[in-house]
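A common beginner's mistake is to predict each chain separately and then try to dock the pieces by hand. The better habit, illustrated here, is to supply every component at once so that their relative placement is modeled jointly.
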Amino acid sequence: MAVRPLLLFFFFAQVRLSFSGELSSMESIPDLQESMYMVVDGYPCVRLLNLSGKIGCSNPGREKVVASIRRFRNANDLTQLTAVLVSLDELQDLLHRSIHICFRISNDVSFHKNIVGVLVESGAEIRDKLKGFSPTQKFPQAEFAPYPSINYEWNSMGSGIMLKAYDFPVFLLSESSTSMLQEVADKNEKVMNGYTTSVAEFDLVMQTTKAGTHDSESCLKEQTCLPLGGYSVWSSLPPINMSLSYQSKPIILLVASMDSASFFRDKSLGADSPISGLLSLLAAVDALSRVDGWNDLNKQLVFLVLTGEAWGYLGSRRFLHELDMQSDGVSGLNSSLIEMVSSAVNDALDALKRAQDSLKSENIEVLSSNSSNPGIPPSSLMAFLKKNSLTSGIVLEDFDTAFTNKFYHSHLDDMANINSSAVVAAASLIARSLYILASDNNDMHSSVLGAINVNTSLVEELMGCLLSCKPGLSCEMVKNYIAPANVCPSHYVGVVIGEPSFKPYLGYVDDVSRFVWNFLADRTSTPKENASSSCSKDCTNEDEVCIRAEINGKGVCVISTTRYVPAYSTRLMFESGIWNVLPPNSSDSMGSVDPVWTESNWNTIGLRVYTIQNGAYDHFILIGGITVTILAYFMIALARSLITKALKRD
Amino acid sequence: MTVAAGIGYALIALGPSLSLFVAVISKKPFLILTVLSSTLLWLISLIVLSGIWRAFLPLKSTTWWPFALLIISSVGFQEGLRVLFWKVYKRLEDTLDAFADRVGKPRLFLTDKMQIALAGGLGHGVAHAVFFCLSLLTPAFGPATFYVDRCPQMPFFLISAIIALAFVTIHTFSMVIAFNGYAEGNTTDQYFVPVVHLVAGMVVKSASA
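With all components supplied together, the output reads:
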């Protein structure tokens, strides 16, 4: 019949069309979905708020931001929404220009209107190219200084970009993602007039943007944000005997801080500032713990590791406040016992000199700071001085007139920025000076001092644990004490979850605080006569604490005075589930200038890259499908009429 | 892509079968039943085949002959099923003719027989398209598109829609040709269908491997 050739024709035509293109390695639809959407690991810059406004980055609304990826240097003629891929030196330029946008009357406006997302490259060569990068101010936290010269430039590299608000998302890429996205951006350049382009989808929707609460007070009331804060740790050597109703020994306080800040929230390592100080403190405690006879000395040592210092000296202010309130968590410490003697500074300087002499073989030098400095550099001592200007204190730094750390409060202040031998030297100096001060004995044998030595391998191990991802917090030393929640350490202070208390739920305390608590408790403990009892939470004896509680079956009670102290603004109070901002108090001068930093809540944060087709192509496909359907219908109708006619003929 | 593109791909793959359904099949309820039962039969054949091959999959071999064996056995099984389908149809035809004689209505015309064959083929084709193309289309409704390295000019979903369209056509028409061949005893037609099915399967598989 005539039908057969017709059918055969359609048949062969279709066979030739079935040419190619099946997948080989994918086994399911979720696999296909995963290969279509590439998840990029990036570190975001998030929205923080203070009493007068906001800083940081956020998506401008409730939606994800989708934009095609281009390199910044090629992006001179932007006609569509773009996500620019910048290197670090270009970042400062871009952000400065977007801040001053209102004041420019030029076609820069359209250029900047079209930049809706920023991706920052990272890599070893970037660090070598830059002289320095510091996104914070030139005098960090100048408002808390106890002297009036707030224009002094402690941080010459400071650009201040961290403290401005941006209405677009900014992500820092990891090294592998950087090369991947550079390829994607280059591919986009080449196929500029095609119908597909690779886009980045930024999910950085902040709850404060959604709720319209643009400062700390309103966002805390609406519960769209949480205040910055954490848990500081203090420990005394030797342990304080709680049964004695009167503590009489004067106290020497050794203070270090354990939090840093950065433009990108999760990449705040702060190796030079302040972790090198923390490492020196921990190494010094370790060295001093091997010395006997602390109970016979005239003075008491207390080691204080504060957090929240980068965001308004939260740790030190709250510690001093609790001391005044004589709270449980600081019982055993009397603020009047902290050395107020005016000769104390000279004694300390002498002790340092003597310690330096005893360490003569090791190339260490202690110098007084330059007299042209306006006063002490930004440090926790400022809070002590504001509380009582008669407090005697020394700030030990590795610089003289200005920071030598070129990457202060940036994500580049990492392990490559410090030197373990310098940390060991500082720790040795501190340990010996503290012993000299505590013993108050002028004719000490050099052999006694010579026995106080810092363990170099301990310092190197701690550096690997606290300043890198390999081994990071899964290193032996940390896992010996706690069960860390993350592997890569981050020294951002974080937010206060739940109600702040002196015996917090350990899940709300961050890894580094818990590690420092356990380390100090272990090192400052006195050995027990009886066998140690195992524990999992608290010990029955008031003088004892349970260390290694998180490791199954390894918790032991030791005699030690080591406590957590919450660190949060003195202007905040947690009442019945809500944070309230207290009005400024004349007795709390630092509180009146406290910005009261809070961090916005968010649902998820993510960054994806995928390819899209332009709208015309999609509509083309739809019309093609409809055409095919209608054409088929007509052909079938035609065939049917032909067949009917053919049959009628038969 | 977007919802528009997703619908477009679905229409490319299944639009002509939809037109065929509306124009021819929907007029006669018996044909609708035939479509449904042949779809079911084809899916059962796939389940049986996957049950048999489960022990050997996934084929991680780099040589070509395990894949060839897979295709040959699958096509062979489905062609065997087609013969079975034909035998069932033959019995059905006798029943229907006897019924028609009893109530004094005319017997099945040639066009009726071809329409039943068409409906059977359409069932197979629709099942293939739904199973191998429509199930992959869910990501096509999202914002992203996907290109495979082996064919960078067209999006993957477009390729799979066109292949599904081709297979719908092959299945539909091959049932007509096969039934015609079995009825008239025409060996050319009888061998034509399995050969074309095998060739099409091999072409698609070789292009993807």
